[in-house]
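Here is one chain, start to finish.
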Amino acid sequence: MIRYTKDSRLIFDLGMNNGDDTAFYLSRGFNVVALDANPTLCERVKRRFQESIDEGRLKIINAAIWKTTGQTTFYINLDNDHWSSLDIGWAGRDASRYQEISIQCVTLSSLFDEFSVPHYLKIDVEGVDHTVLEQLRGKSLLPQYVSVEDCRFGFQYMEALACCGYDGFKLLDQSTVSQMTDTATGHIFPPGSSGPFGCDLPGEWLSHDNMVKFYSATVRDMQGNRLAPRTQWWDIHCANLGKKEQSMSEAQYVSP
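Its structure:
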Protein backbone atom coordinates (compact mmCIF):
# COMPACT_ATOMS: atom_id res chain seq x y z
CA MET A 1 0.00 0.00 0.00
CA ILE A 2 1.35 3.44 -0.96
CA ARG A 3 1.37 6.18 1.67
CA TYR A 4 1.79 9.93 1.05
CA THR A 5 3.59 12.53 3.18
CA LYS A 6 0.66 14.70 4.22
CA ASP A 7 2.32 16.08 7.37
CA SER A 8 5.87 16.71 6.13
CA ARG A 9 7.34 20.24 6.23
CA LEU A 10 9.99 19.45 3.60
CA ILE A 11 10.14 20.44 -0.08
CA PHE A 12 12.56 19.24 -2.76
CA ASP A 13 13.42 21.90 -5.35
CA LEU A 14 14.96 19.83 -8.14
CA GLY A 15 16.22 22.33 -10.68
CA MET A 16 16.81 25.22 -8.28
CA ASN A 17 18.33 27.61 -10.86
CA ASN A 18 18.48 31.12 -9.30
CA GLY A 19 16.59 30.14 -6.15
CA ASP A 20 13.35 32.03 -6.73
CA ASP A 21 11.24 28.94 -5.99
CA THR A 22 13.32 28.15 -2.93
CA ALA A 23 12.68 31.70 -1.67
CA PHE A 24 8.92 31.11 -1.83
CA TYR A 25 9.07 27.74 -0.09
CA LEU A 26 11.17 29.21 2.72
CA SER A 27 8.74 32.13 3.07
CA ARG A 28 5.96 29.61 3.69
CA GLY A 29 7.92 28.03 6.54
CA PHE A 30 9.08 24.87 4.76
CA ASN A 31 12.53 23.33 4.98
CA VAL A 32 14.05 22.93 1.53
CA VAL A 33 16.50 20.62 -0.21
CA ALA A 34 17.48 22.44 -3.41
CA LEU A 35 19.48 20.76 -6.17
CA ASP A 36 21.20 22.16 -9.23
CA ALA A 37 24.07 20.88 -11.37
CA ASN A 38 25.39 24.35 -12.24
CA PRO A 39 28.10 25.18 -9.65
CA THR A 40 27.97 28.92 -10.37
CA LEU A 41 24.25 29.06 -9.60
CA CYS A 42 24.75 27.03 -6.43
CA GLU A 43 27.35 29.48 -5.14
CA ARG A 44 25.09 32.45 -5.88
CA VAL A 45 22.13 30.85 -4.13
CA LYS A 46 24.27 29.94 -1.12
CA ARG A 47 25.15 33.62 -0.70
CA ARG A 48 21.50 34.61 -1.19
CA PHE A 49 20.22 32.26 1.53
CA GLN A 50 23.16 32.03 3.91
CA GLU A 51 20.93 32.74 6.90
CA SER A 52 18.53 29.89 6.05
CA ILE A 53 21.49 27.56 5.50
CA ASP A 54 22.96 28.50 8.87
CA GLU A 55 19.58 27.89 10.52
CA GLY A 56 19.46 24.40 9.02
CA ARG A 57 16.34 25.16 6.96
CA LEU A 58 18.03 24.90 3.55
CA LYS A 59 20.41 22.36 2.06
CA ILE A 60 21.88 23.13 -1.37
CA ILE A 61 23.22 20.20 -3.38
CA ASN A 62 25.47 20.79 -6.38
CA ALA A 63 24.69 17.62 -8.33
CA ALA A 64 22.64 16.26 -11.21
CA ILE A 65 19.75 13.94 -10.58
CA TRP A 66 19.96 10.77 -12.63
CA LYS A 67 19.02 7.08 -12.52
CA THR A 68 22.45 6.08 -11.14
CA THR A 69 25.11 7.66 -8.96
CA GLY A 70 28.64 8.50 -10.11
CA GLN A 71 30.22 11.14 -12.34
CA THR A 72 28.82 12.23 -15.69
CA THR A 73 29.01 15.12 -18.15
CA PHE A 74 26.72 18.11 -17.67
CA TYR A 75 26.21 20.81 -20.32
CA ILE A 76 25.86 24.38 -19.06
CA ASN A 77 24.06 26.58 -21.57
CA LEU A 78 25.98 29.86 -21.77
CA ASP A 79 23.14 31.79 -23.40
CA ASN A 80 20.24 30.64 -21.19
CA ASP A 81 21.13 28.83 -17.96
CA HIS A 82 17.55 27.45 -17.76
CA TRP A 83 18.47 25.18 -20.69
CA SER A 84 21.47 23.52 -19.05
CA SER A 85 21.06 19.75 -19.09
CA LEU A 86 22.56 16.27 -19.02
CA ASP A 87 21.12 15.98 -22.54
CA ILE A 88 23.41 17.70 -25.05
CA GLY A 89 20.54 18.12 -27.51
CA TRP A 90 18.52 19.90 -24.85
CA ALA A 91 21.40 22.10 -23.70
CA GLY A 92 22.47 23.05 -27.22
CA ARG A 93 19.05 23.82 -28.66
CA ASP A 94 18.64 26.69 -31.11
CA ALA A 95 22.39 26.56 -31.80
CA SER A 96 23.11 28.08 -28.38
CA ARG A 97 26.54 27.86 -26.76
CA TYR A 98 27.31 25.44 -23.96
CA GLN A 99 30.17 24.35 -21.70
CA GLU A 100 30.89 20.79 -20.59
CA ILE A 101 31.66 20.02 -16.95
CA SER A 102 31.95 16.82 -14.91
CA ILE A 103 29.30 16.54 -12.20
CA GLN A 104 28.32 14.11 -9.46
CA CYS A 105 24.96 12.36 -9.93
CA VAL A 106 22.45 11.45 -7.24
CA THR A 107 19.27 9.42 -7.45
CA LEU A 108 15.85 10.23 -6.06
CA SER A 109 16.14 7.23 -3.75
CA SER A 110 19.43 8.50 -2.33
CA LEU A 111 17.85 11.90 -1.63
CA PHE A 112 14.84 10.25 0.04
CA ASP A 113 17.15 8.11 2.17
CA GLU A 114 19.27 11.09 3.27
CA PHE A 115 16.61 13.74 3.82
CA SER A 116 13.28 11.81 3.94
CA VAL A 117 10.36 12.03 1.52
CA PRO A 118 9.15 15.61 0.96
CA HIS A 119 5.64 17.02 1.13
CA TYR A 120 6.11 18.49 -2.33
CA LEU A 121 8.50 17.44 -5.09
CA LYS A 122 9.20 20.08 -7.75
CA ILE A 123 10.85 18.65 -10.88
CA ASP A 124 12.34 20.98 -13.48
CA VAL A 125 15.54 19.31 -14.64
CA GLU A 126 15.59 20.04 -18.36
CA GLY A 127 15.44 16.91 -20.44
CA VAL A 128 15.66 14.26 -17.72
CA ASP A 129 12.38 14.88 -15.87
CA HIS A 130 11.13 11.46 -16.99
CA THR A 131 14.05 9.83 -15.18
CA VAL A 132 12.89 11.34 -11.89
CA LEU A 133 9.27 10.32 -12.47
CA GLU A 134 10.28 6.72 -13.20
CA GLN A 135 12.10 6.59 -9.86
CA LEU A 136 8.81 7.26 -8.05
CA ARG A 137 7.43 3.92 -9.21
CA GLY A 138 7.39 1.11 -6.66
CA LYS A 139 8.01 3.27 -3.60
CA SER A 140 5.81 2.73 -0.55
CA LEU A 141 6.07 6.37 0.60
CA LEU A 142 5.64 9.26 -1.86
CA PRO A 143 5.24 13.05 -1.77
CA GLN A 144 1.71 14.37 -1.34
CA TYR A 145 2.26 16.75 -4.27
CA VAL A 146 4.45 16.59 -7.39
CA SER A 147 4.96 19.00 -10.27
CA VAL A 148 6.92 18.55 -13.48
CA GLU A 149 7.64 20.92 -16.33
CA ASP A 150 5.52 20.00 -19.34
CA CYS A 151 7.11 19.09 -22.66
CA ARG A 152 6.28 16.86 -25.63
CA PHE A 153 6.23 13.89 -23.22
CA GLY A 154 3.36 15.34 -21.17
CA PHE A 155 1.03 12.39 -21.77
CA GLN A 156 3.72 9.96 -20.58
CA TYR A 157 4.41 12.11 -17.51
CA MET A 158 0.76 12.03 -16.50
CA GLU A 159 0.54 8.28 -17.06
CA ALA A 160 3.63 7.68 -14.89
CA LEU A 161 2.16 9.81 -12.10
CA ALA A 162 -1.23 8.10 -12.29
CA CYS A 163 0.55 4.75 -11.95
CA CYS A 164 1.99 6.03 -8.67
CA GLY A 165 -1.50 6.61 -7.28
CA TYR A 166 -1.86 10.33 -7.96
CA ASP A 167 -5.54 10.97 -8.57
CA GLY A 168 -5.73 14.78 -8.89
CA PHE A 169 -4.17 16.78 -11.73
CA LYS A 170 -3.90 20.45 -12.69
CA LEU A 171 -2.15 22.51 -15.36
CA LEU A 172 -0.50 25.77 -14.33
CA ASP A 173 0.12 28.19 -17.20
CA GLN A 174 3.63 29.44 -16.42
CA SER A 175 3.14 32.56 -18.53
CA THR A 176 0.65 33.78 -15.88
CA VAL A 177 2.75 33.13 -12.77
CA SER A 178 4.22 36.65 -12.62
CA GLN A 179 0.65 37.95 -12.25
CA MET A 180 0.09 35.86 -9.10
CA THR A 181 0.61 36.74 -5.43
CA ASP A 182 0.68 34.30 -2.53
CA THR A 183 -2.22 35.34 -0.31
CA ALA A 184 -0.65 33.82 2.82
CA THR A 185 2.61 35.82 2.69
CA GLY A 186 2.16 38.51 0.03
CA HIS A 187 4.99 36.91 -1.95
CA ILE A 188 4.99 38.09 -5.56
CA PHE A 189 6.12 35.37 -7.94
CA PRO A 190 8.95 36.56 -10.23
CA PRO A 191 8.77 35.82 -13.97
CA GLY A 192 10.24 32.40 -14.65
CA SER A 193 9.46 31.01 -11.20
CA SER A 194 7.24 27.96 -10.73
CA GLY A 195 4.53 29.70 -8.72
CA PRO A 196 2.11 28.16 -6.20
CA PHE A 197 1.57 24.45 -5.61
CA GLY A 198 -0.81 22.06 -3.93
CA CYS A 199 -4.05 23.45 -2.53
CA ASP A 200 -3.02 27.01 -3.50
CA LEU A 201 -3.21 26.27 -7.22
CA PRO A 202 -6.12 27.85 -9.11
CA GLY A 203 -8.86 25.63 -10.54
CA GLU A 204 -10.28 22.23 -9.67
CA TRP A 205 -8.38 18.98 -9.46
CA LEU A 206 -9.12 16.63 -12.37
CA SER A 207 -8.87 12.86 -12.54
CA HIS A 208 -6.22 11.45 -14.84
CA ASP A 209 -8.74 10.71 -17.60
CA ASN A 210 -10.25 14.19 -17.46
CA MET A 211 -6.82 15.78 -17.31
CA VAL A 212 -5.83 13.94 -20.50
CA LYS A 213 -8.98 15.23 -22.20
CA PHE A 214 -8.31 18.78 -21.04
CA TYR A 215 -4.60 18.63 -21.94
CA SER A 216 -5.28 17.19 -25.40
CA ALA A 217 -7.67 20.06 -26.13
CA THR A 218 -5.47 22.77 -24.62
CA VAL A 219 -1.75 22.00 -24.99
CA ARG A 220 -1.18 19.34 -27.67
CA ASP A 221 -3.30 16.67 -29.29
CA MET A 222 -2.78 12.90 -29.01
CA GLN A 223 -0.59 12.97 -32.12
CA GLY A 224 1.78 15.44 -30.46
CA ASN A 225 0.74 18.52 -32.44
CA ARG A 226 0.99 21.67 -30.33
CA LEU A 227 -2.31 23.52 -30.00
CA ALA A 228 -1.35 26.43 -27.75
CA PRO A 229 0.72 29.47 -28.77
CA ARG A 230 4.43 29.46 -27.91
CA THR A 231 3.85 32.28 -25.46
CA GLN A 232 2.25 29.75 -23.11
CA TRP A 233 4.02 26.93 -21.28
CA TRP A 234 2.93 24.73 -18.38
CA ASP A 235 3.79 22.76 -15.31
CA ILE A 236 1.81 19.59 -14.67
CA HIS A 237 0.81 19.31 -10.99
CA CYS A 238 -0.59 16.26 -9.28
CA ALA A 239 -1.74 15.22 -5.82
CA ASN A 240 -2.97 12.21 -3.98
CA LEU A 241 -6.42 13.40 -2.94
CA GLY A 242 -8.30 10.24 -2.10
CA LYS A 243 -11.59 9.10 -3.69
CA LYS A 244 -13.82 11.67 -1.99
CA GLU A 245 -11.91 14.70 -3.26
CA GLN A 246 -11.44 13.14 -6.69
CA SER A 247 -15.18 12.56 -7.09
CA MET A 248 -15.90 16.21 -6.23
CA SER A 249 -13.40 17.42 -8.82
CA GLU A 250 -14.83 15.19 -11.53
CA ALA A 251 -18.35 16.38 -10.79
CA GLN A 252 -17.29 20.00 -11.25
CA TYR A 253 -15.26 19.39 -14.40
CA VAL A 254 -16.55 21.03 -17.57
CA SER A 255 -15.11 19.85 -20.88
CA PRO A 256 -13.33 22.57 -22.88
